[in-house]
Amino acid sequence: MYNRFFKRLLDILIALILFIPALVIVTVCYLAIKIESKGPAFFVQKRPGYKGKIFKIYKLRTMRIDTEKDGRKLSDMERMTKTGVVIRKLSLDELPQILNILRGEMSFIGNRPLLEKYLEYYTPEQMRRHDVRPGISGWAQVNGRNELTWEQKFERDIWYVDNVSFALDVKIFFMTIKNVFKHSGINAGINETMQEFTGSGEMVSLDK
Q1: CA dihedral sign, ordered 56, 62, 66, 72
Q2: Domain that holds residue 123
Q3: Is residue 198 in a domain?
Q4: Which of 21, 71, 82, 170 has a C-alpha 20 to 30 A away from that of 125?
Q5: Number of structural domains the chain divides into
Q6: Do 51 and 127 contact (CB within 8 A), yes or no?
Q7: Does residue 185 belong to any structural domain of this protein?
């Protein structure tokens, strides 16, 4: 009952309450991004959501659009803007996803939406991570984040699907707030990009 009705209702109510404050913060970040570096202030990318349905996710851009300098490929840390470091550490880059929540594409708490190209690599069990709406924060994010292996991430994602409840969502929410202020697992997210998922085990068949 909670996952099918009350969770969505809470998402809408909280998103409406936070919309104006979030809009103010996003506007300030938008101006800072535009002043510091060229390019769009928002990062838009297609991601698989509930039941694998593709949607466009919105984030504040934290990196320069240039990928090379003097013929050398820049690392993620080198591409990170000064504004981006602050935005990423405080997880403010995720605020535009309140719009995704209001559109019914995401939830505040759920499994993080990964890249669309990973769909073809999932096993049937891993595909179950899409049995809930993707979230801004989730069980894997408050239990290791980028320090986890892919298998560990998926194990936590599936565990969340099987155990989703109001009490668990509240726990994840407060753990998220705590981790933001402690910057727990943030450094790995800024200094390096996690290796791409290339599949493991039996693959799931997708209708192209």
Answers
A1: negative
A2: 2-191
A3: no
A4: 170
A5: 1
A6: no
A7: yes
